[in-house]
Amino acid sequence: MAFFNKKEKNTSNRPRTEVNSTPQPKPQPKPQPKPQPKANLATIISKGIRVAGNITGSDFVQVEGTLDGDITVDNVTIGASGVVNGTIKAKNVSIEGQLQGEIYCSDLEVKKQGKVSHKIYATHLLVSGTISGDIVTEKTVTVERDGNIQAQRIQSKKIVINGLVDGKVSAEDSIEVGHDGKVKADRLESRKVVVNGKIDGKITASELLEVGRNGFVQGEITVKNIKTEEGGRVIGTMVTYEETKAPAIETPAISNTQSIDKDDNIIDTEPA
């Protein structure tokens, strides 16, 4: 028996077309590099280094060594071992070391080991260290328990004292002496004075003197109203506060050649 094989068609020379049923991913855009945040510029005077000269700019200055010169920047930190002999002008200042010079700033914090001499002009002041010199702030002075101020003048809108203060103290709105507060005042003046600690000196409260149960006030006292809780003590002379009258306005004399019309308005400047 004969076998016949069918010839297979040769398709090896034909081009093959491959069909891929898997969907191709869409090309993704290359990720753009994120903008790097601008590094804060800083000037650091390390411990053991002494620099003579002024520093001016808009950056941050940290002093751990000694600087003999003035600083005019945005932010200043004087570390525990830092010493600055000069004037500081800045927005924010933190002092744990020593400053021998005047300071002009918005917010000032004098930490527990910090020491400041000469004049201070600020908006807000927080004291846990030692200050000797005049203090003028626009809004607040806060003296913490460890704070110690020896000043010829302390002037602000509101003053809160929980530490030691010696000098002339005046506040436009109020002075509060906390339980741990002790004040020896050549003169202490405010619209409202609240005492839960101790004040010794010349005290003037144009609206109210309030003495808490642990409060002690001794000296020459001038008040308009006084409120004393049981246990509070007030010792010394006391007089009633009277507002000082403004001096009468002097009107210029009218010469003989001048005349006054009948319809002219005349303002009486004499007190009623």
What does this protein look like?
By secondary structure, the chain is an all-beta fold. The protein has 2 domains: about 40-120, no CATH class; about 130-245, no CATH class. The protein contains no helices and 24 strands. The protein has a 24-stranded parallel β-sheet that branches. The radius of gyration is 38 Å and the shape is elongated. The model is unreliable at about 250-270 (pLDDT under 50).
Key terms for this structure?
single chain; 272 residues; mainly beta; 2 domains; 24 strands; 51% strand; disordered C terminus
Q: Describe the oligomeric state of these chains in a short phrase.
A: single chain
The total strand number stands at: 24
Radius of gyration: 38 Å
Mean of pLDDT: 83
What is the structural class?
mainly beta
The number of helical elements comes to 0
